[in-house]
Write a structure and sequence with these properties.
The protein has 356 residues and is α/β, with parallel strands linked by helices. It is built from twelve helices and 14 strands. It has a six-stranded mixed sheet, with helices on both faces. Helix 3 crosses helix 4.
């Protein structure tokens, strides 16, 4: 549904987006992550046609955004971080206005507005002024406006920013429901939200894509140390001496606060070494009971921090090479398909001429 090819956006000598290429398949919910200044908002603005790229191509359902912007935009519904609402309009009045802007047929507008209000659960606020709505309801009205015109693609920029926990859960459920009939590109800084609703994740940094995969695969690809958190009851000096003399432990971080006569700590070891059994026998020998012992597995946040930190990352290099190779293969296949279609058309034309 979305194809981005060597996208570049420069402001003077600064490249906010630099050679970005990726695809979003139909029916997928894709998370779009990156640190502040990575180029996320700039990319989204180019995808939606708000700004033009310096170089590169954007295809929306096969339609070039630069060459045919009006036609391409019909396939997109966009919810920016701050929804462009008119506070002095009522909810129904605003959505009818949006329907008119998006050229929904006059006879269908009332029905479409009612249907979308019901889907986004703002129908009970239809006659209320937008200025008096809560932040959560304003986001829902913005999403309703993005859905107007039945676009195939929804691009959501920080849809849960500023919402309370209950509103975040409600918005997450709504996005899951919408994913049944829409392709969704979702930008967010909330890792739990991304891992909960997204089929794939794209991570960019310094205007370039550094990873694209499922949340589980990304977590599994980040190798390094394994962390174990432990709380032991007993004499502090004995506990420290025991763990500090264990050869498989690479680093120890003691908790700043622990209950009386206990010591909490996080132990770091090579991921190939499972030291839990060794810890059990070591402290049993010292008559120091272990009150708590559990792994601290990598999270999506750990992945994000590892991939966006400064310095070389072998996974980034390998993933970029793989992505480039896959993209070139798809491009070659498309060119071959176009050649075959052109050949068939030429043969059909010759057949038509011979019939005459």
């Amino acid at each position: 549904m979305i194809e981005v090819e060597n996208l570049v956006k420069k402001y003077g000598s600064h490249a906010a987006v630099d050679g970005l290429s990726f695809t979003v398949d139909k029916g997928k919910v894709v998370g779009f992550l990156g640190p502040n200044g990575a180029g996320k908002s700039t990319t989204m603005n180019m995808l939606t046609g708000y700004i033009a790229p310096t170089e590169g191509r954007i295809l929306i359902d096969g339609i070039d955004m630069v060459e045919k912007p009006e036609k391409a935009k019909k396939h997109i519904g966009y919810l920016p971080e701050i929804p462009p609402l008119y506070p002095d309009m009522r909810v129904r009045e605003y959505l009818q206005f949006v329907a008119e802007l998006k050229k929904v047929p006059r006879n269908d507008r009332a029905e479409k507005v009612n249907l979308i209000m019901k889907k986004t659960k703002v129908d009970d606020m239809s006659e209320r002024l937008i200025r008096y709505l809560s932040k959560g309801y304003k986001q829902r009205v913005g999403l309703a406006a993005a859905m107007m015109g039945e676009p195939d693609i929804l691009i959501l920029d920080e849809p849960t920013v500023g919402l309370d926990p209950n509103q975040i859960i409600e918005m997450r459920e709504l996005i899951r429901e919408l994913s049944k009939n829409h392709t969704i590109l979702l930008s967010s800084h909330i890792m739990q939200e991304i891992s909960a609703v997204c089929d794939e994740i794209i991570i960019i940094n310094n205007g370039k894509m550094i990873a694209k995969d499922t949340p589980d695969n990304l977590i599994n690809m980040i190798k390094g140390t394994s962390a174990i958190h432990m709380v032991v009851k007993g004499d502090e000096d004995i506990i420290k001496e025991t763990v500090e003399n264990m050869p498989d432990i690479e680093k120890i971080s003691y908790d700043s606060e622990s209950e009386e006569n206990t010591l909490g700590m996080t132990l770091y070891s090579s991921e190939d070494n499972d030291i839990r059994e060794t810890l059990f026998y070591a402290f049993a020998d010292k008559s120091c009971p272990i009150l708590e012992l559990h792994r601290s597995d990598n999270s999506l946040e750990d992945v994000f921090l590892a991939l966006t930190k400064d310095g070389d990352n072998q996974y980034i290099k390998d993933d970029k090479e793989s992505e480039d190779k896959e993209y070139e293969e798809q491009k070659d296949e498309k060119q071959e398909e176009d050649k075959d279609n052109k050949k068939i058309e030429e043969e059909e034309d010759l057949t038509d001429v011979s019939d005459i």
